Amino acid sequence: MADIHDHTHAPRVDCEQALAEIYTYLDGELTDEKRTLIAGHLEACNPCIEVYDFEAELRVVISTRARNEAVPETLRMRIAEKLALFIRGEITDGDASFDTGTDAGADPDAGADPSIGQPPAPDA
Hints:
Number of strands: 0
Structural class: mainly alpha
Radius of gyration: 27 Å
Shape: elongated
């Protein structure tokens, strides 16, 4: 007699479960078993594969655009200077902040209140 298997109890993933894991699937952070289940669902479900395709393409666009953005040279120099000071121990992480502003060519101290960061004046 032939061995008959009932595959109706095989693990399955529904749309809600597949879409809840779509980012971990894209990041390759699922177990092999879970990845296989999600992949199987995506192969069989057009609405979910459309979501997957959109998210995957969006990641490529964001990555490409972010890589192509030019960082102003003055900002690069200020970051490099702060990193060098931090590495040498001349400043702490609390001291390493600075205004990045939107106008890279502007003087970062222009318009700054000179009393900020100074000890209080002694009483007269």
